[in-house]
Amino acid sequence: MYIALSILLTAACLVPASAKLLGHPKMQKSAAHFGIPWRRYQLIGVAEVAAGAGVLIGLWWHPLGVAAAAGMVVALTGALITHRRALDSAKEMAPALLALAITLAYLAIAATS
User: Fold this and answer.
1) Cα–Cα nearest to 77, from 50, 49, 95, 100
2) DSSP string, 12-65
């Protein structure tokens, strides 16, 4: 279960990160919607890449995976606060909520491993 969640969480980090770093129009629209300058929004993508790499390396060095996931909890909490401030619907918040659920499941499993 730990390996499967590690891979799932890595994907949950890297998919949106790549969209941000590659300048996908939907991500540019999100940055504008939230009032975040584009270059600063791309830094979120850099953090997501770091978290994904940390979780993946965590398969071999457990503490790094846990630290990376803890960082994702902070980032995703910030994302949800940002969505809420923008008065977004639950549908618009769903990707961040799903990623947070995966992250929390990973941390729960990691705590018992």
Assistant:
1) 100
2) HHHHHHHHHHTT-HHHHHHHHHHT--HHHHHHHHHHHHHHHHHHHHTTTSHHHH
Whether 113 has a pLDDT exceeding 90, the answer reads no
Query: In angstroms, what CA-CA distances link 16 with 1, 57, 75, 103, 110?
Result: 23, 19, 13, 15, 23
For 30-57, write each residue's pLDDT tens digit: 999 999 999 999 999 999 999 999 999 9
The predicted model scores a pTM of: 0.92
Other CB atoms within 10 A of residue 56 CB:
19
